[in-house]
Amino acid sequence: MDLVKHVRYFVAVTEERHFGRAAARLGMAQPSLSQRIQRLERELGVRLFDRTSRGVELTEGGRLLLAEARPLIERADTLLGVAARVRSGAAGVLRAAVPPELGSAVVAALVGGFRDGSPGVRLALRELGAGTQLTELRAGTLDVGVLRYPVDVSGLGLGEVLSRPYGVVLPHTPGAGCGPPGAPPPHEGAGGPVGLASLSGLDLVLFPQPSAPALHAEILAVCRRHGFEPGTVIAGQDPEFVDGMVLSGTAVTFATRDRKLPPGTAWHPLEGEPLLEQVSAAWLRGRQDDPVVRLFAEVARSVLTERGGMVPVMETAAARRTTLPGPAYGYTV
């Protein structure tokens, strides 16, 4: 009997609390799953579940074994991951990714910090959007990444979630003020706080809607709740296009404070910080015991706080805000 495989079946039934749902999740027939659980019970000499009309409940013995089952699966996943890297010749290489537009200073510090902490391991770093990172993490072709939220992180281990606020980029003519009517004058390339409601009537440049439909809708919903009804929502990714739309005086876009902006534009914080960028390191669950994965996650957290101006997300604050997984500049999924 393949013990690890049967323990995976046991954990799936435990999490679903129903043989039918667990079988669907595992991609197998329910009778076949029931037979495998019965075989595991015989092998262990322990009854794992009490069957009820609504599903299944763990027995006391099942609860005790579940505490050992999950670490066993995680260690097996780590072993299989290391074996795969050895087979592919990737031992001694950490395959990592960061999202677009993270900032040159942050990327340089991340590479340098990892190299200093693990000089014997080569960092193969790429710039990948969240969707591609998720696909590669789950396929085992990426060891660790830095994800922007919101994303589906099921099956992944996560580092500390960090955040920083988004502001709005508006046109600015030196000496003439900037922003919508009534906005305060700019200072050192940045203006005073701007309420979303004061932007009404202007167009809004966002990443293309098909890239992340739910997120696109969520951002617009937040804008409208705060009184900002864009004249038109314009799909834009190329920085030259986005810059041109802002410089035209007809459109705005969202960006973080450290975004490099062209002459003639200024960054303003949004009143109440209704939009946040949130990121964290992510890896396939079970890889947390890999020392180079842990090192990358720790270096990323340190660099993002010290160089990127990010702070840990507090649950109470996060519940009141919407996340934006990347400004219009270079946004990809």
TrEMBL record:
Pfam families named in the record: HTH_1, LysR_substrate
SUPFAM superfamilies: Periplasmic binding protein-like II (SSF53850), Winged helix' DNA-binding domain (SSF46785)
Lipid metabolism listed as a keyword: no
GO molecular function: DNA binding; DNA-binding transcription factor activity
Keyword annotations of the record: DNA-binding, Transcription, Transcription regulation
Origin: domain of life: Bacteria
GO cellular component: protein-DNA complex
PROSITE patterns membership: HTH_LYSR
Start and end residues of each HTH lysR-type domain: 1-59
UniProt similarity note: Belongs to the LysR transcriptional regulatory family.
Protein name in the entry: HTH lysR-type domain-containing protein
